[in-house]
UniProtKB/TrEMBL annotation:
Domain of life assignment: Bacteria
Organism in which the protein naturally occurs: Mycolicibacterium brumae
Name by which UniProt lists this protein: Tricarboxylic transporter
Coiled coil: none
Family as reported in the entry's similarity comment: Belongs to the UPF0065 (bug) family.
InterPro entries (UniProt xref): BUG, Bug_dom1
Length: 334
């Protein structure tokens, strides 16, 4: 009897979750596992190949290469905007050998899915860096500037689909921020969600009816096509211009309120002692000082925004409130 693909996926996720639970239990019961510098698990709350997976695997490499942690394993727990991974992490109470990659997308997932568990229920470790979104068009687009696009969008928002990542993700929320700042009714926005940057790029370059005229996503999703001249940047959502990218910032374009960035960070399970939290903060601090990590930040055009412990915890609460409000305004919390 053939098993439907959806059922296979569900079984696979359950198996992964079971492995993470087992790892957490073993970490708490084993003398060696209790030492975060001997063995560590990094949870990437998304499928392999995505942004959180990239952060987890680059962190793994940095920790291993410089001998900060002897054995580092990455476990992917995808689904529901990262909230499945968050739910799993919350069950590993007191486990000081596990951390999870998190970021802006998870805050949106928490708001959209009405998650009873939030990042306030974790132990904050560190915010690492910020990744920036770029508005782009195809090389032959009639929109030569951001002002050209905005004028056309204001006139007929329903007739101008804007492409980006998953519904309710950072890209979608940035489009919402821009609509609000430009005085466009959010109910009139036509947002086209795509599974990844590759799929979005293909549709941006397509001449088929109904494909998006404008795309917004992280710089790295568009990097190769921008370098080849197949895409043109209109605006970057960043505090400063990105090196080598001829595009104004949102503030320069007259919209400083469009400021949502895709930050990446690390949290740990609840119930850690102050000593366990301090140890994990120390490990991550050492990691960010390695040559490998510094090269990763430069290569991906990230901006370091290091923040640790209670200050990071305060940031998480405030950012969740801000994003939850935006999700509600966009009608994405239904």
């Amino acid at each position: 009897m053939r098993i439907p693909s959806a059922a296979k996926w569900a079984v696979g996720v359950l198996c992964v979750l079971a492995l993470v639970v087992a790892a957490g239990i073993n970490a708490n019961q084993s003398g060696a596992g209790a030492d975060a510098r001997s063995k560590m698990i990094l949870i990437a709350p998304a499928a392999a190949g995505g942004g959180w997976d990239l952060v987890a695997r680059e962190a793994q490499q940095a920790l291993r290469t410089d001998g900060i942690v002897n054995n580092v394993q990455v476990v992917n727990v995808p689904g529901a905007g990262g909230t499945i991974g968050l739910s799993q992490l919350s069950r590993l109470d007191g486990d000081g050998t596990t951390m999870m990659v998190t970021g802006t997308v998870m805050l949106g997932g928490i708001a959209r899915n009405h998650s009873e568990i939030t990042l306030a229920d974790t132990t904050p470790i560190a915010r690492l860096a910020e990744d920036f979104d770029v508005f782009v068009v195809s090389a032959d687009s009639p929109f030569q500037t951001f002002e050209d696009f905005l004028a056309a969008w204001k006139e007929h928002p329903e007739g101008m689909p804007i492409g980006g990542g998953s519904a309710g993700g950072v890209d979608h929320l940035i489009v919402g921020q821009l609509a609000r700042a430009a005085g466009i009714d959010m109910n009139r926005i036509r947002y086209s969600a795509y599974a990844g940057g590759g799929e979005l790029t293909i549709n941006l370059l397509s001449t088929a009816h109904g494909t998006p005229n404008v795309g917004v996503s992280g710089f790295n999703d568009f990097r190769d096509m921008l370098a080849d001249g197949k895409l043109r940047p209109l605006m970057v959502v960043a505090p400063d211009r990105l090196e080598g990218l001829e595009a104004p910032t949102a503030a320069e374009a007259g919209y400083p309120a469009v400021d949502l960035v895709n930050w990446r960070g690390m949290v740990a399970p609840p119930g850690l002692t102050p000593e366990q939290q301090t140890e994990l903060i120390g490990i991550v601090t050492e990691m960010t000082g390695t040559e490998h990590w510094e090269a990763v930040v430069k290569r991906n055009r990230w901006k370091e925004s290091f923040l640790t412990g209670d200050e990071f915890g305060k940031f998480l609460v405030e950012e969740q409130q801000r994003i939850s409000t935006l999700v509600t305004e966009l009608g994405l919390d239904q």
